[in-house]
Amino acid sequence: MDTIAIVDDDLISVDTIQALLKNDRYSFLRAYNGKDAQNLLNIAGNQVKSIILDWMMPKMDGIDLLRWIKAQPHLKNIPVVMLTANDTMEHIREGIEAGAYYYLTKPIQGAILQSIVKSAIRDFNLKISLLKKIKEGENVFRLLKDGEFYFKTISEGKGLAINLANTSGIPEAGIGLNELFVNAVEHGNLGITYDEKTLLVNNNIWENEVSRLQALPENRHKSVKVCFHTEPDSITITIEDQGKGFNFDKYLRLDEKRVFDTHGRGIITAVHYLSRLTYTPPGNKITIEFNPNNMYSLEQENPHPDFVDQVPSL
């Protein structure tokens, strides 16, 4: 059973949130101000899969608590859903910069709350599962100097991400690679648009639609090409799908509009875990370069997201 921490100074609001989520079989931890939440998370943070956090609270407000959470190595990867009655762009931007990838505005709508929390926990569980498989896996790929790989399905891409992550010696690299591989299949080869995925995720039919599209004659033989090359102090990975490309620039950072969506954080996640990403227009090819001795780790501070480049059109 997944555990959610609810942090809000309004007892009625806490009760309401818990009641709206009770049918999804969660367990709950509760705190009524930021200071109490700090104590709670220090004791039981390893049990928590998501935090629902009110912005305005006594003793320590939500934004300060969020910054504290993101500075703690054992808590920083827990997805935080910010609750706010103020949905101005300036307000939301402050939350994004502090690390909030999920937003809900008051008054709370039950269906949206359920969908956002489910998405946040799904993303968190996927990351933890990937890390576990990478850390438990064999490291034979560390012997690889050059390689060319082709995969067709999201499942195959996940397996490749796990193996390639072992080359860096930093398991978290696999999270970023997996996100890019998923994008290459769903948005690249299958042509699922952002708006279409929103509907599919909200209706819980995304996986079924991906399987249906991959079985179509026009998609059956499409693959994603991955090239891998190592030097003594660097690793280069190139990912190329068979799609038409996309406007990648708008997805390199989380904007104020998409924080209310249940998806759309894949490239942001990749930027978070990988050192340098370079998209080549029209957007169906991306190159990742990193030094395996200087990679992001869960024990380090978050890297700054400005290490993202764009190759000029030729």
UniProtKB/TrEMBL annotation:
It comes from marine sediment metagenome. CDD domains: HATPase_RsbW-like, REC_OmpR. Residues 3-121 form the Response regulatory domain. One of its GO terms (biological process) is phosphorelay signal transduction system. SMART domains: REC (SM00448). PANTHER family: TWO-COMPONENT RESPONSE REGULATOR (PTHR43874), TWO-COMPONENT RESPONSE REGULATOR ARR10 (PTHR43874:SF7). This is Response regulatory domain-containing protein. Gene3D superfamilies: 3.40.50.2300, Histidine kinase-like ATPase, C-terminal domain. InterPro entries: ARR-like (IPR045279), CheY-like_superfamily (IPR011006), HATPase_C_sf (IPR036890), Sig_transdc_resp-reg_receiver (IPR001789).
